[in-house]
Amino acid sequence: MESKNLEVSKQDGKLVVTFNRPNKLNAWSEQLVDELTTLLEEASFDNEIKVIVLTGKGKAFSAGGDLDEFLASTPQQVEKYNRKVIDLFRLMEKMRKPIIAAVNGYCNLETIQAVDYVLASTTAKFGLPEINVAISPGAGILVRLPRLVGHLKTKEIALFGEWIDAETAVKMGLVNRVVSPEELMRVADELATKLASKAPLTLGAIKAVINNSQGMGKDEAMEYQLKENSSLFNTEDLREGIKAFLEKRKPVYKGK
């Protein structure tokens, strides 16, 4: 897929997507959202892709929405944009493939709300700066974030609009791991390689249960987990995984 706003590479089961608007702090224009949506839709059905890595070129992962576009848009156009972003995040959550965010600089929390692992550079900054230009954070972040860090902490982040350093973000549960800027993409590749070596159907089942069970009652969620778990026993990969363990060799998974 050709893209004006994304750099894309695919190798050894890993799809690396780099936001390529460094002069705009990789702000998400409507065109970028459309391109990323199309790319991830295609990746969902590409059996060669096992894991996806998102990162940004320059000094930002992404500062959020494109303010120039917002200023030139009607309220109806902004609502249309936000609906597209919400649909993109739903797609990311429903994809049965893990998504890693390799955060290299300024990162609006909206842009990582639907990823599965957050790796941050020591220079990364996280926040919801919209209040500083009289915008309310959108695209679902005010719904998802309280479930992650609690209501009071979400209000603090959104009401003050201040940036949070990477180490603080780890303590808050916003980030999994922090590494030096020089190590960021190397470690991201190592993590992606590890995930790409796992059984893809099992990775998908684990992600699906964690994401999809959040809105369910306890008993319904337990039944859903049981269904996902049981379905794996019909797969060749599960049998291969058990045999490889017993035979003390590396498994060869086929996604079947």
TrEMBL record:
Record SUPFAM superfamilies: ClpP/crotonase (SSF52096)
The alphabetical list of record keywords is: Lyase
A GO molecular-function descriptor: lyase activity
Q: Which GO terms describe its biological process?
A: fatty acid beta-oxidation
Tell me yes or no: is Lyase among this UniProt entry's keywords: yes
Short name of one Pfam family for this protein?
Answer: ECH_1
TM ranges: none
Which PANTHER family does this chain map to? ENOYL-COA HYDRATASE, MITOCHONDRIAL, ENOYL-COA HYDRATASE-RELATED
Protein name as catalogued: Crotonase
Origin species, per record, is Sulfodiicoccus acidiphilus
